[in-house]
Design a protein that fits this description.
The protein is an all-alpha fold. It has a single domain, classed as Arp2/3 complex 21 kDa subunit ARPC3. It has 8 helices and no strands.
Length: 206
């Protein structure tokens, strides 16, 4: 038994490392190669959490953040958004551990699959709003309340320029500017992460 637990631990840790590397790769391709202004460095956080649970999901988020912070000298506390997202994915996972995946059942009712998609859609909406609020609050505290300089330009900054003309309070502006971006990228993270997790469950047996 101790040998099996150690083997499982090693496999899970390797999965977290691979997933964190995949997050960094997706983020680099999205931002610097394809020039797409989205936050897609958490797709594999969601995939790992969907497939093997909360702790591996958080470890993947921390490893991803460490890699991005080291590579781009980005030390802001936005890792809290990644951790919050993993917590939401874990809490609202449409298929609990030990339950069969409807998509794999040869005679699964259409209603079961629709139910999974509906719960993913609810998770997507909750994540979009929650991450917008949390990210906006962190941005406001870190860059407005505290004397920190922002060294890079992100997608929501372009939206802020339009909101500035309407005399919107800084905190509300930081939150509202993130909603359009998160509506797009959380869709990819939640649905993409879920379907990637099916592959992890099938090929990466832990």
């Amino acid at each position: 038994m101790p040998g099996k637990r150690f083997t499982r631990f090693i496999k899970l840790f390797l999965l977290c490392i691979l997933a964190a590397g995949a997050n960094n790769l997706v983020n680099h391709l999205c931002v610097f190669v394809l020039k797409i202004p989205l936050f897609l460095d958490t797709v594999f956080n969601a995939a790992v959490c969907f497939s093997v649970g909360l702790i591996p999901g958080i470890v993947t988020a921390l490893l991803t953040y460490t890699g991005i912070a080291f590579r781009y000298s980005n030390s802001g506390p936005f890792v809290l958004c990644s951790i919050a997202e993993v917590l939401l994915v874990w809490r609202m996972n449409p298929v609990r551990f030990g339950e069969p995946e409807a998509i794999y059942l040869p005679k699964a009712a259409v209603a079961s699959f629709v139910s999974v998609l509906a719960r993913l859609a609810l998770l997507y909406i909750v994540c979009s709003l929650a991450i917008s609020i949390l990210g906006g609050a962190i941005d406001y505290i870190y860059y407005t309340v505290l004397p920190n300089s922002k060294l890079y330009f992100t997608a929501e900054d372009a939206i802020k320029l339009g909101l500035l003309q309407n005399d919107i309070p800084a905190l509300a502006m930081n939150i509202l500017s993130r909603i359009p971006v998160n509506i797009v990228d959380r869709f990819i993270v939640i649905f993409g992460g879920y379907f990637i997790s099916l592959g992890i469950k099938k090929w990466f047996v832990v």
